Recover the amino acids of this structure.
């Protein structure tokens, strides 16, 4: 939350309120089975927020605490707006609805799908920069799966060779199949991508690959890439 524009002290207060007060509340009332911090889409957030707004216990808590919990939910909405994209939403919702795994496992899988946690750290250690451009500010880079998350096994989802650390414009183009890479690392650009130069993408781009990337990239070229 702090990185979405909130002061550190306020971020800590709101995060604590969500973790210690609101999470137990929404679980006890059957509104949400996982953490509020893992809400994946605006649709889910809106549903949760609407149910809370008419809950007597929640309303009383806000009155008694100078609207602190309402403020926490506002900042949570900004966090969701900044970090969760539409392309991820279906996968994340399917995780949250999966009753065959524990809450801890669900939370871990959501973090992996959103390019956070262990998978992101592995890619930062492996690349340390954008794998394509060499841009070094890792806080602005996206942990991108090569073989789509939905098609990967649990082991593949955490495999550092199934990922690139990319600038957001390159990640989105790659994830959407507008670009891919040859086995030698040379970029492939689909004719469906209009004006790639406006995204800073051109045919001179190349990526340094490891042998472990090849199988994942072959899958991407066959099943995700839109073709030259």
């Amino acid at each position: 939350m702090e990185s979405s524009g909130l002061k550190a002290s306020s971020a800590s207060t709101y995060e604590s309120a969500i973790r210690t007060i609101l999470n137990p509340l929404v679980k006890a009332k059957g509104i949400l089975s996982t953490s509020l911090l893992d809400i994946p889409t605006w649709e889910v957030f809106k549903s949760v927020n609407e149910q809370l707004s008419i809950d007597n216990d929640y309303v009383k808590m806000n009155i008694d605490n100078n609207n602190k919990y309402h403020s926490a939910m506002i900042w949570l909405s900004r966090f969701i707006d900044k970090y969760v994209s539409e392309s991820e939403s279906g996968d994340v919702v399917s995780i949250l609805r999966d009753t065959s795994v524990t809450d801890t496992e669900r939370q871990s899988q959501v973090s992996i799908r959103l390019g956070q946690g262990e998978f992101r750290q592995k890619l930062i250690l492996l690349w340390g920069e954008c794998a394509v451009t060499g841009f070094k500010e890792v806080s602005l880079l996206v942990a991108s799966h090569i073989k789509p998350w939905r098609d990967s096994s649990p082991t593949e989802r955490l495999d550092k060779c199934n990922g690139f650390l990319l600038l957001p414009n390159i990640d989105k183009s790659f994830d959407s199949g507008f670009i891919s890479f040859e086995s030698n690392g040379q970029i492939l650009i689909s004719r469906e991508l209009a004006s790639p130069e406006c995204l800073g993408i051109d045919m001179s781009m190349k990526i340094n690959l490891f042998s472990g990337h090849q199988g994942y990239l072959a899958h991407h070229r066959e099943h995700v890439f839109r073709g030259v």
Summary: The chain is about 50% helix and 5% strand.
